[in-house]
Structure formats: structure tokens, C-alpha cells
Amino acid sequence: MTHDDLVERARRWLAGKQQCSVVATEIKVGYGEIADAIGWKGIASHVVECKTSRADYVADWKKQFRADAPWLGLGQYRWYMCEPDVITETQLPHKWGLLYVVGNGVRIVRKAEAQTENYGGAVDVLLSILRRVNIADDGHTSLTVRGYTISTRSRATLTLGGEAN
Question: What's the chain's Rg over C-alpha atoms?
């Protein structure tokens, strides 16, 4: 399974099972974090980091902001998503949740616990997204999100109001 496949699964899980009304993917934050998927349900934010290999997970924890300033991490609830056995429950940081992609579903291995170190960071991301949304004034409901192309390999997405078809 590719990283893009996992990101799409995370987006669908947040919009569907977690009932997040706003979900965005591949959102870059000023200090270097790229949230694979972030969603908001009421005032609670959920971040899902997608990992395709153990080496990818280990590299994630070597990032400067994770090692030196973990309180900058996004999400009141923080999750890792991977295929089974890429990350085990005993390898998780304190309060992080773990999701396994199994077949067409997502299984919660460990629930994330609420964290409050950077509550405002997720709010800042949401406000940044909203500043880039344009609603067409042509009698049709249409939304476009601009400014979130992360690289040539992926494109940020925004889902409003739950699961998109």
C-alpha cells in the first residue's frame, strides 16, 4: 500500500467513522510538519500520520520538531495509520493512537488520548484553510481550495460536511 493510499484511507476514516465535518490532507505547517490528514469534529482536531514502513516511522521521530518540540505537534488526538505490524502498540508515543488498515477497513488498535499542548496550532491550520476557500457566486455551490499543492507527487484535499463521493 502506498503513502497516497493510506492518506486517502485516513481522509475517509476521519470524514466517515470519526464524523469530522472538515477534513484536509497534506497540509504543511510552517515549522516543517506536513499533516497527512487532519479533521475537525466540533472543536476537537484529529491528525493521522500515515506510515508505509518501520523506517518511515523511525524517520518521523528524528524530525527536529518531534524530537526538540513535541508540543508543536498538531491535533488534540494524534494517530498513526499503517498496515499491521509496521508499528506495534508498544512502540507508540504516549497518548498516540494506532490504526491498522485491514482489507477495506480500518481497525483501531489503540485509541488516541486527548492532548492539549498545541490546541491553537490546529485552529491556525483551519483558519489558514478557510482563508483559501472561494465560494462561487454563480447560483451553484462550488468550493475551490488554492495554495495547498505540496509537491508534484501529491495534492492537498479538503472535504467539507463528511464523506465525499
Answer: 15
For residue 57, give the 3-state DSSP assignment: helix
154 DSSP 8-state letter: B
**In this predicted model, what pLDDT tens digit does every residue of 124-139 receive, in sequence order?**
676 666 666 655 555 5
What's the CA gap between 157 and 164, in Å, rounded?
A: 11
Rounded CA separation 103/42 (Å): 30
pLDDT in tens, 83-105: 998 999 999 988 899 999 999 99
Q: Report the length, in residues, of the chain.
A: 165
Record the cell numbers describing residue 50, joined without a space.
500515515
Q: Which long-range contacts (CB under 8 A, 24 or more apart) does 66-72 make?
A: 69/31, 70/117, 71/117, 71/118, 72/31, 72/33, 72/117, 72/118, 72/121
Task: Measure the CA–CA gap between 126 and 46, rounded to whole angstroms.
Answer: 12
- The reported pTM is 0.76
CA atoms within 13 A on the CB side of 150: 18
Residue 33: phi and psi, rounded to 5, are -75, 140
Within 10 A of 128 (CB to CB), how many other CB atoms are there? 16
